[in-house]
Amino acid sequence: MKIAFQVPCVVRGRIGRGKGLKSVVTTTRVDFDVPEVAESAAVWSYAAELARSADGYSQFYRYDGQFYAGTGHYDNETVQKGWPEDPWQADTPLYARLWHALLDDLLEAGIGKGEDPNLSTVVAALTLDDVMERASAWDDLAAAGLKACPETEDDIEEARRKAGQVLDGLMIYRRELVLTTGQPCYAVHIKGREARITIGSTEEHQRLRAASFEHPVFYPFARSNDRIEALKHYFPIEEREAMLAFVEASGARVVGRVPKASRHRWADHDEVMDGLELDRIARITVHEIALAFASTTFYTAPSALLRENRSLFEAFYDLKEFLDERREPEAAGEELETRLTELREQAKAARSVSDGLINRPLGAFLDLALSRFGDRRISTLAFLPSAGALPKPL
Prior knowledge:
The chain has helices at residues 75-81, 93-108, 119-126, 131-136, 150-167, 203-210, 225-229, 240-250, 274-294, 303-308, 310-324, 329-349, 351-357, 360-370; strands at 2-15, 22-33, 36-37, 43-49, 57-63, 66-74, 146-147, 170-173, 176-181, 184-191, 194-201, 233-236, 253-254, 261-263. By secondary structure, it is an alpha+beta fold. The two termini are 46 Å apart.
C-alpha cells in the first residue's frame, strides 16, 4: 500500500551568487509501498499497559523474527493524506530513526574535513536532545534559498534510497501501521531509595550494539553523572518477581505503580535477555571510562596510571575489543561477565585511579547491575532470578 512520507535529508546546492556547493538540511517526499500482513501471519505476543492506566494498552506482535508495535496511525487515513507528522517537529520512533540515519550518513562522510565545513553545524544540531531546539537550528541553514544542480538530484535520490531502509520497518497489520521495535521488557530506574518501573524494550540495547563508541548521540562526548544516574535496569516481562526482588535487594522501594504487562501463552519466542542486558551495561562502562581516559593528561595523571596499574589498562582494552566483535549476546554472556567483572575488580584495587575512571555513580550502577548475574544471590530471601546463570559457551 503506497504511503507518502516527508523524510529529512542533506543535499548539496548553491546559495545566492556563490559558485561553491553548500549542504543544507531539507525534506523530500518518498512514496513507499508498505506491505500488508495477514492477521494469521503474525503472533500477538504481548500486551503492556501504557504510562497511565487510562491510556490503555500497547500491543506487541512478532512477525518474521521481529517485534512490531503500533504507531498510532491507521492505514485508511494515512494512505489518503500521507504520514501526518511534520518531520521538523515529530518525535516518534519512526522519525527518530530517520534523523539518526541521516546523522550516521554525515558521520561516515567525515564531517568538517571536506569541501563543506558548514556540515559540522548540521551534525551539532542533529545531536541535540530537545526536538524544538533541533528544529530551530535549521533557521540559519537557508534551505529555501537553495539552487538545485546535478549534485542536488543525486543527493535526493540517495536520500530516498536510504530512507527506504528505515521505512522498511513498517507494515500494516490489522489495519494499523506498526513499526519494528525491540522485545518488550520492564525498565527499572533506581535513584537513591526510590525505584520507578516502566515498560521499555530492547531497542535501547540494539542501538548501543549497532553504534560505534564514537557516535555522538548514543555515546556523548562529555562525562555526565546525571546521565549515569538516569540509567535503567531491564528485565523480561516474565521475570516480574525477580525484578521486584532486585529492587528490594538494592534497598529501594517501588514508587508508583508497576505497569501491568503479560506475555501471551501462545507466544513462541525465547524471552531470555540476560546476555543482551549485560552487553548494554558493558558498553556503557567502556564509554564512560573512555571519557575519563580522554580527560586525563600526562601532567595530571597519577603515576599509578602510567606505571603500576597496567592491568587496569589491559582489562579495559580486553573488554573493549571483545565488545567490538559484537558476538551473539547470549552465547558470549559468560565470557563478557568475566571480562567486565575483571575490569571492575581492577578499578577497585587501584583506588587512587578508580575515583577518576570509575566514579561513584558509575561504580554504584555497575555493582548493582552485576549483582543479578551469575550464581550470586541478590536478596536475603536467597532468591535467584528465574533465568538463572548466564549460559555457558559450548
